[in-house]
């Protein structure tokens, strides 16, 4: 092995260690485990102060990018002169912006203060969305959608990092389900808000078109919430406002069992390579792409799917709201049961199977069966449970700061590709049934079910291998391994969630 005398500097221990080591630099074992009462007290404080902000921002993340769907039946297409497949491209262009910055944005999340960098992007995306109220043609709309994608790209990987930073691995699925479930809440609020604006301005001459007002309201509100996020959200346990200095150390102590620490700001090439060579990275990526081809199509066309099933344009805005309730409830229940029974894949696949059933019904029921097709659409909204389960796997099963951000970036890049392809399956010539798109949705979700079981099998096999290592009489645990910024492959103490 090379030595310092041979001209190669030894590894810098400061670069190797996690930020959490600041709490335990003088302790060989990292201190004692917390008692149940202290742990429960801290969880309540963290939940009360962090979850409302995470949920609100993530709900706005969904509402702001799907405002286009509501606007599509409020006069947007005729007012700015969209023709041919230009509306489909507005759906896809958002994800081109997302795709362009996904990896750089993930690296910046690792390098710079997590909450401050996230807040900057939230404020900028709110301002960008408000600018959509001023667009006059396809070119202007496409430009705004592209930059909206650029600034929203930080949210999902950033929130996965927040979750892994503050919660134990048996708390993360439920918390991820809660904040991701606010997609559904946003769908309810967005549908009701769009309906109220459309109904309130119906038959009246207004100074501003109703759909423009919708973009202004949602964009400006996002800016306000982004400012609140900047002020209140902590970057990590060391600059949190709502914990005492003693509780800050305890908050780090309680997540020791994750074997992941709270983050390391230095890029490590070997972790980057490990991420690229890990089969699970690409199993995740396959799911993110295949699973979001349906998502990209449905989130941009759900108002038109409902309208084409025999409802008025205004009614389609309101009738989309129950779909949001289905999504929110299924995600919260799935997350809760996953943490309780430690069976994340099996539980989440139930929601995906329900979504697949809804897609099959949409593809088979005639347009005249309005109620049946509406119920089928609602069933499709249970499908995100599996996507969220894999997102929580990035929090719990992928360790090493550089590896985690790399896997998250690849996962979200594949997510972008799926969402770019999704709207293109809804071709104008197939309207109003969109049979090819509905068949594509069924095939994609079917393939995702298979992929989920492959992922579970792989992690289970890895756990068996790690158990053999730990049971070896000669095995010795690395002191403070949980704070050494080790990858999941390097650390035998990290047990994969299933």
From TrEMBL:
Taxonomy, superkingdom: Eukaryota
Keyword field: Membrane, Transmembrane, Transmembrane helix, Transport
Subcellular location: Membrane
Major facilitator superfamily (MFS) profile domain sequence ranges: 50-498
Transmembrane segments: 146-166, 178-198, 210-233, 345-365, 371-394, 406-422, 434-459
Keyword Transmembrane: yes
GO molecular function, one term: transmembrane transporter activity
Pfam families assigned to the protein according to its UniProt record, in alphabetical order: MFS_1 (PF07690)
One cellular component (GO) term of this entry: membrane
Keyword Thylakoid appears in the UniProt entry: no
Topology class, membrane: Multi-pass membrane protein
Cited CDD domains: MFS_FEN2_like
Main location, first listed in the record: membrane
InterPro entries hit by this protein: MFS, MFS_dom, MFS_trans_sf
Record family assignment: Belongs to the major facilitator superfamily. Allantoate permease family.
Protein name from the UniProt record: MFS general substrate transporter
